[in-house]
Every structure is written in structure tokens, then in C-alpha cells.
């Protein structure tokens, strides 16, 4: 057994123990380390109700702002060719002939997400996290260069942090370049720390490796989330992102939230950790590949490294 293989096995055992310890610990509350914008009317800033927050959130739009057709005309905005309008229902008072309010009625309104519009979009200020802590010791240039080598772009999003290789998302907003990736992230200052920002970005990068164009990893949602979170921890360690007490608690709470339902199958833990090691190793090799060979390398690596 060579030194590299021995080190890999040690890392694998450490990951298994970290996962098992998180699951067996007392219940830990996970809290979102960033602030996001709720779905709302772009002009009135009226926040939509819970039903629309859930339904619009499930659609995966990167913008939280929605425009009515009247708003499009007023601002000179035009829907893109593949834009799909959605319907919202508003409650409006009804009046009698004398102008007295006698009740209310609901009316449907067609709205477009701002991500699917072209034209002079409104400029808005991004609200910083109220408890944000600066961490100047993180080498931002190194991390940016690493993402650039992988052809990954972090795209500002108002609605959360996520990556999907789903055809619907790629067709509307993502790059046509099959070996590149766009990961939607809340702006850095909306996170409680730079470490939390990069940890979340690494989580989405691990999801990015699951694409059929890369490792073609096919796991159930819970197992995939564990792979992504453990992978984020490993990438933080390798890329010099400090995991302080608060971020460590968030990692353990997230592992616990997805891992407890898999506790009955301990063999799955080893497979999950093996997938983590596989993804991290693949990212290391892909980030060092020569530009002229990057597409050929990605194509050859489908199915394993």
C-alpha cells in the first residue's frame, strides 16, 4: 500500500466517524447561514404568501422579483423567447354602487420572473448579513482561480444557493457549454462569514460533480446531500477555508438532518464517504488539467476517475 492510498483510507475512516458522530449526537438545529429575498412583486415590493413562496421556490428561479405585464410596459422590459409566465392570485376589495366595501374577490394576474426578462432591469442594494464576520485569512484569489480552472461560475442569486443540471434550468439560464457550470449563490456579504460562503459554494460544487457529464453519480436525495456536505468539509480543509465552532456546528447539524434517516443502513455510510473521496479526487485532477485537454478529460472521466 503506497502512502497516498494509506492517506485516502485514513481520510475515509475519518469521514465515516464524523458522519456517525453527527447522527448519534443530540439533536442539533440547522440554520441557514445566509439571508435571502422572499418572492415578491418587483414594483410594489409586496411579498407573496406562503403558497407562492413554496411553489415559486420549487421552480428554481434565481430571482425573487416578479413583474406584471403592466410593469413590463412601464419599465420597457421584454420576456425572453423561452420565458414562461406564472399566475398569482390577489385579493381585491369589492364595493357597492355607493362605494362602500362589501367584501373581497380574488383575481389572477400573469407575472414574469425577472431572470427571464431583457431590458433596463431595476438596480437594488443587497442587504448584508446582520451578524457578518470578516475573515481576511482566506485566500480568495486561490479559490477564484480554482473555480476558473474548473469552468465554474458563481452566479448571483436572490433566492438561495443551488446547482442543477436539470434540462429545464440549463435551457433557460445556464451556459450552453456542456463542460462548464453555473452555480447560483447568494452574494458573499449576505453570509455570516466568508467561510460559510465558501463552504456553501463547495457543497454546490460537489453536487456539480454528480452531473452525467462528470461523475454521473446517481444517489437518492438524502445520500447525495450527505456526499455534498462531507465533500464541502473536505474541500474546506484542502483549500484553506477555516471551519470555526459555529460553522462546524452547522456542518454537523446538516449531516444529522439528512443522515438519521439512513442510520439503519451503516454500509451506506462507507459508500457515501467513498463517493466523497471520488468527487474530491476528481475535482483535484480536473482543476489541474490543461486548458487544451479539458473537454477531452471531462468526457473520459464519466463513470469514475
Helix and strand layout, with pairings?
Layout: H1 3-24, E1 40-41, H2 50-59, E2 65-68, H3 69-75, E3 78-79, E4 86-95, E5 101-113, E6 117-118, H4 140-149, E7 152-156, H5 167-172, E8 181-185, H6 194-208, H7 221-239, H8 245-259, H9 266-288, H10 294-300
Parallel strand pairs: 1-2, 7-8
Antiparallel strand pairs: 2-5, 3-6, 4-5
Helix pairs in contact: 1-8, 1-9, 6-7, 7-8, 7-9
Plain-language structure description:
The protein has 305 residues and is of the alpha/beta class. The protein has two domains: 3-34 and 127-300, no CATH class; 40-118, no CATH class. 44% of the residues lie in helices and 14% in strands. It contains ten helices and eight strands. The protein has helices at 3-24, 50-59, 69-75, 140-149, 167-172, 194-208, 221-239, 245-259, 266-288, 294-300; strands at 40-41, 65-68, 78-79, 86-95, 101-113, 117-118, 152-156, 181-185. The strands form three sheets. A four-stranded mixed beta sheet has the order 1-2-5-4. α1 (3-24) packs across α9 (266-288) and α6 (194-208) packs across α7. The protein starts with a helix and ends in a 5-residue tail after the last helix. The model is unreliable at 1-6, 166-179 and 290-305 (pLDDT under 50).
Helix fraction, binned, reads 40-55%
Structure summary, number of beta strands: 8
What's the helix count?
10
The oligomerization state is single chain
Q: What general outline do the C-alpha atoms trace? A: elongated
What's the structural domain tally? 2
Biggest pleated sheet: 4 strands, mixed
Give the N-terminus to C-terminus distance in angstroms. Answer: 19 Å
β content, as a range? 5-15%
In the predicted model, the low-confidence regions spanning at least 5 consecutive residues are: 1-6, 166-179, 290-305
Task: Tell me, rounded to a whole number, the average pLDDT.
Answer: 77
* Order of the strands making up the biggest sheet: 1-2-5-4
Structural class from helices and strands? alpha/beta
Order of H and E elements: HEHEHEEEEHEHEHHHHH
Q: Radius of gyration from the CA trace?
A: 22 Å
